[in-house]
User: What shape does this take?
Amino acid sequence: MFDDLGLHANLLKGIHDMGFIRPTPIQAQAIPVILSGRDVIGLAQTGTGKTAAFVLPILHRLLLGRHSRHVRTLIIAPTRELALQSMEQIKELSRYVPLRGAAIFGGIPMEPQIKALAQGVDIISATPGRLLDHIYSGRIDFIDLSVLVLDEVDRMLDMGFLPDIQNILRLLPPKRQNLVFSATLPPEIQKLVHQILHDPVTIQIGQRSSPAVGIRHAVYPVPRHLKTELLMQLLRQPDMSSVLIFTRTKSYASRLSEALAQKGLKVSVLHGDRSQSQRLRALEQFRKGRSQVMVATDIAARGLDIDDISHVINFDVLNTPEDYVHRIGRTARVDATGDAFSLISHDEEPMITEIEKSLKRTLPRVTLPDFDYKRGGGGPHHGRPAHGGHGGPHGRGGPPRGHGPRGADGHSPGGGHHRRRRGGR
Assistant: This one.
């Protein structure tokens, strides 16, 4: 129970208002350690409540600490959406406490951020580039900084932010609490993390690179040139209420979203070439159910917390099991259930084999009984059809339940969903 973690009464009031009673495993283990002042490495599957695991104890310590007009906590995130998401969580959880925060990221005018910094903030949630802009302009003083959080640090380094992170670290007071939260911690960045942290406590929930328990997986073998048509048929099923579709590239995310919109679907699109206002509008429309579908690239959607996504569909299969886990973690968040479908052409089979080895399970192959796998192409082509990808797909599929497919194990991967919330995001 949250009441047993020693959190400030005003924080508990906000937690109860949000309907949370029991912490998730990462929250139950991390919060007491962070409250004690120790450095922490927090590793857990995407969707397990990592953000609240560091936000709640930080808010508690700020409430009990000495007030200052200078920044006392700095959260660094790889994307604008994640920086904004952390600040939204902070505002929700601190509704009964007199703390102020600001989200600092690029793609929007600097004036509102300059005004917020001038008024004084306790917490900054920022992307590296825009943060450095404000630092070098003399708008941020870290003299009273007591906590540094690196959120999704593995993706931050993948995106090339290491030089910016190192520049920021040089400007921070050496005596501080350091918290690193991430879905994975590959060996190549462990050295950097241990240079930043002092005698850290490592908290790991579940196996690394393992998906959330409530996810039902299915693989749909299909010739590459028929992926869009198969996707359309899947999206027509009545249980496809909130679907996040991943593509490898920004250009194809735009092309696919346009093709789906032409078929009459309400579609949002999220990728790095969209303006900040376009990205925020896409997220808002998808969160509120105004768009049934959001097509996104991996980097843009990394770590996003959107409740009740019914399905994640991999239009392309990525090269590593870790990326597969990151993608499908957008559904079945915080003890909910959801479906993860992968549309694979013949040349993508080796990638699925690697994913299956990592997961230590065979993913069921599914065919749609009323889909013509031998016809010519249509819709936006995603490269050339793979050799050997024509004809009916391998694997077995059972008879449909209603209009939905059945997998090789006889279970319907698109069955009903029962969702219940536990801890915060």
Notes: The two ends are 16 Å apart (CA to CA). DSSP finds 15 helices and 15 strands in the chain.
